[in-house]
Amino acid sequence: MALDARDAAERVDQLIILTERLTNLIADQASAFERRRPQEAAGQLEETSRLANLYRHESARVRSQPALIEGATLERRVALMRATEAFDAVLARQGRALEAARTVTEGLVKAIAEEVVSQRSSGTGYGPGATAVAGDARSVTLNRSA
Hints:
The protein is mostly helical. The chain is 72% helix and 3% strand. The protein is elongated, with a radius of gyration of 25 Å.
């Protein structure tokens, strides 16, 4: 998958459009996470993935072959740089939103696991002299590598 540009000016214009579209999608996702509504971010996931792959491919191509955009006007190349800076800022925002969501989720899982541990009891026997010992459910409920 690659951009289909006739010249450097067209390639830069296509890169600007791609970068701005991807920036908007990721900003929408970050906003959904900030509002604690991650299910809203899932709706555009396929398009975001497709555009992110195209962006990654084209960015690598331009880095390895700068001549692909050198023929564009300085004004358009500056516009591409500004679009890229906005994209980087949105990526940082999304990273913060995802980290906050992860922290909240881990806290909830830990609280649930601790509650399960406090309520779970496993008897060591039956009858009038039997004792109950609370078990530790964290190994079952909380997977730190996830």
